[in-house]
Amino acid sequence: MLRAVQHSSMVLPDQNITMWGIALLLNGVLIAFAQRLPLLTRMGWVHAGILGTILWGCLGWRGWIAVVIYLVLGSLVTRLGFAQKQKQGLAEARGGRRGPANVWGSAFTGTVIALLIGAGIGSATLLLIGFAASFAAKLADTFGSEIGKRWGRTTVLITSLRRVPAGTEGAVSLEGTLASAAGSLLMMLVMAGLSVLTSPTAMIVVAIVGLIATLLESLLGALAQEKVSWLTNEVVNGLQTSWAAVLAMLIAVPLGLAG
To answer: Could you tell me which residues are beta bridge partners of residue 172?
Structure first.
């Protein structure tokens, strides 16, 4: 289990200060070197450093590593078939580099949950399930979108099953949906491997909810994204990770996983 979760109410003030000091120093040094990597924009790295400091300070190194792995996996799948996606006009902007809005669109829900855990508010076990589900949903979305846009053979609108061009809001394909399932499963395995998740039942819940949340995100895209001006991709990402976390925790409670 995560260090910050274990006996969180028994952590001494000086230990908290040391934890946050290490978090700030480590993330500052790492971000300074990581700016050379083609994963985020310059400001994207700055905001990633803020995110990383919060995660390490609240959850310890395991929570931090889990999100770093999420970032790497998401960036790698974005690069798959990138040249072809550029030709089709479907590639991510800035050569696939994510900016601050992308960072927080993906991680805002997880950050709020981490802060709740760090403050000792609520059931840490239950909140960790929500934390894991939020990133499983986002990696599922990234896998489904990037692989579906490049290799999806038949792309249909989720609401009507009418064929539409790849990249259309609310569009899904068999290949993209399978990729989403794989992304959710992979993120769940990362969380389990780092002991963020320790119950087999919780692992199953997170993997399934990650896929469900991605399909719901496609449904929202088809029904409202082009009609509502403030529903940007980043806002939709934030909504997706939020309902993934809430849904996973709602399912976990009657299953006796609240701790």
So the answer is: 156
Decide: helix, strand or coil at residue 156. strand
Strand partners, 157: 171
Domain that holds residue 62: 8-252
* Tokens standing for residue 231: 């529903």
* pLDDT tens track for 81-123: 655 555 555 545 555 577 778 888 889 999 999 999 999 999 9
Q: For the chain, what is the domain count?
A: 1
Examine residue 224 and state whether it is found in any structural domain, yes or no: yes
188 CB contacts (<8 Å, ≥6 apart)? 132, 136, 197, 203, 206, 207, 210
CA distance 191 to 203: 8
> Would residue 63 count as lying in a domain?
yes
| 3-state secondary structure (DSSP) of residue 232 | coil
CB 66 within 8 A of CB 125: no
